[in-house]
Amino acid sequence: MKNRIKLLRTERDWSQAELGGRIGVSRQAVIAIEAGKHDPSLALSFRIARVFGLTIEEIFDDGEQANG
Questions:
Q1: String of b and e for 10-44 (b: at least 16 CB within 10 Å)?
Q2: Which of 17, 26, 42, 44 has the most crowded CB, counting CB atoms within 10 A?
Q3: Can you tell me whether residue 3 is helix, strand or coil?
Q4: pTM flag (> 0.90)
Q5: Backbone phi, psi, residue 40, to 5°
């Protein structure tokens, strides 16, 4: 799943370790999520969204278009 985490993190001048500490995961987990090699759980996705002050949809793109 594509995401904007790296962009959002670097805009705030946070290291991967700092973001990991803020959301309760390791630096390695942040690396894997940023690279799209690991999709975070729903609970972790909410924590990520909260730390950036955005919605999940503003951060993650599952590649599906909304109908409408």
A1: eeeebebeebbebbebeeebbeebbeeebebeeeb
A2: 44
A3: strand
A4: no
A5: -70, 155
